Amino acid sequence: MSTQAATEERTVVIGLEVHVQLETDTKIFCGCSTEPEEDEEPNTRTCPTCLGLPGALPVLNEGAVEAAVKIGKAIDADIPETTTFHRKNYYYPDLPKNFQLTQYDAPICQSGELEVRVDSEPRTIGITRAHLEEDPGSLQHAGGSIETATHTLVNYNRAGTPLMEIVTEPDFRSPAETRAFLAKLEEVLEYLGVFDPTRDGSLRVDANVSLVPESEVAADGTISDDALADVNRAEVKNISSHKGAEQALAYEVTRQENVLRRGREIEQETRHWDEARGVTVSMRSKEAEKDYRYFREADLPALEVSDWKSQIPIPELPDARRERFREEYGLDRESASKLTSTKAVADFFEDVAEQFDPELAATWVADNLLGELNYREMSITDVEDRLDEFKRLIELVAADELTVKNAEEIVLREMLDAGEDPETVIEREGLGVADSGEVAAAVTAAIDDNPDAVSDYHDGDEGAINFLVGQVMQATGGSADPGEVNGLLREELDG
Ligand code: ADP
Ligand code: ZN
Ligand code: MG
């Protein structure tokens, strides 16, 4: 590695290795469930294969391959006719076989890309490869962190969960870009239905960071492979969120800048992101590929995907759907964005827009429903099986059987807080729109009961009418239309 002059201006260069757990029913090479049971005991959701017992053989999960093909299509990757599995050999207690089944020189996805928006500028991030592999077990450092624990426990329940490792080109030029990329990637994976972002540890990121001399950056922003290989970099592990990635990388960039400023050299090393302390800590010098002694997995034949891949459809992806929402429903960019933030939201909006005016549907789904859900830290998936109730609520408003104000401020909120259907809330709170007889009676009563306000009105005090409207609204439980009440009162008083 070259000596790095301290004084030279440098460009931040980042490449990501993103591990995502694929949503399949069973593990990638055995029939064990991927779904943790409530209060599950460690090492119970296992079998001889995922425990790595001698003689146990792997059988590839078709669902995992389908998910990988969907991802490949979504990132415009080449999916080769034949894809193969290798053993990656290393000793670590979370890996009972002492090797990980993964893909090496024939990964299932090659040379893809993903477009992200950073400060409303489109940026295309190259994806070198994406391959299938098995998740190791998990370690629990007893009594503290990896550095302070007295001993470590191992749990193989996670071992064998299907993973897709998505490796990007070193195309990022700032920590903020990685955050935008991860958000976009998660959105796409969620649309594909291959990923559950709410599951703990379903997304894990290793981030490679270096500071490349400005003189190596071409006018078009590209950097030669030689220059990238020539500079020492740190690989930061243990990042588990978009925000974590941005924070860890911001810390690491500053750390490297300080090292260079002091006239020292950046080590080629693996560092650990300590989220609680907000720092990266040196773990070990970085492994080289040759350390892993990759060789073909003899127990899994080569996998032919060429004929099969055309039969695996993918849904309309978020960018395309946003565009279509703008055109088809006349939505502005912000509403279209909100309404396509997850596939569940977009599907629900389209369902509502089929029945009502798109503008009304957009207001109800984007502003009212999502707003109230956000406020409660809930998401549309929490109310997925109650969407008919929300449609009935909108129906009641559209048919003038419920005022907008009551619908938004009382019924919707009670539906979420009390888990009741709209009819129950309306009945309990007496919110049905008052019939004309009831309103007329309340108008007469307000005039009879408030002679002072009536004489004030006749003396030209306009404020008095507002008071009387208030009385009627109160008497009808807010279910009358204030404008209409105002008119009725004036008619009575002036007549
Ligand atoms: P290795 O085999 O050492 O892990 P790879 O070529 O597989 O290296 O790249 C691993 C990751 O490192 C990729 O995400 C890639 O984009 C990134 N990377 C490569 N060179 C650099 C660099 N100079 N600075 C930052 N990231 C880099
Ligand atoms: Zn198993
Ligand atoms: Mg690598």
Characterize the structure shown.
- The longest helix is centred in the middle third of the chain and has 20 residues, at 242-261.
- The protein is α+β, with helices and mostly antiparallel strands.
- 38% of the residues lie in helices and 20% in strands.
- The chain has 15 helices and 15 strands.
- The protein is elongated, with a radius of gyration of 30 Å.
- The mean pLDDT is 92.
- Residues 27, 30, 32, 46-47, 49-50, 160 line the site of zinc ion.
In which range does the helix fraction lie?
25-40%
Q: What structural class results from the helix and strand content?
A: alpha+beta
- Which strand order do you get reading across the main beta sheet? 5-6-9-1-10-11-12-13
Q: Sum up the overall morphology in one term.
A: elongated
Q: What are the bound molecules? A: adenosine-5'-diphosphate, zinc ion, magnesium ion
Q: Average pLDDT across residues?
A: 92
Write the layout of secondary structure elements.
Elements: E1 10-21, H1 62-74, E2 82-83, E3 86-89, E4 99-102, E5 109-118, E6 121-134, E7 138-142, E8 151-155, E9 162-168, H2 175-192, E10 203-213, H3 225-230, E11 234-239, H4 242-261, E12 269-274, E13 279-285, E14 295-296, E15 303-304, H5 318-329, H6 333-339, H7 343-355, H8 358-375, H9 387-398, H10 404-418, H11 422-429, H12 436-449, H13 451-458, H14 463-475, H15 482-494
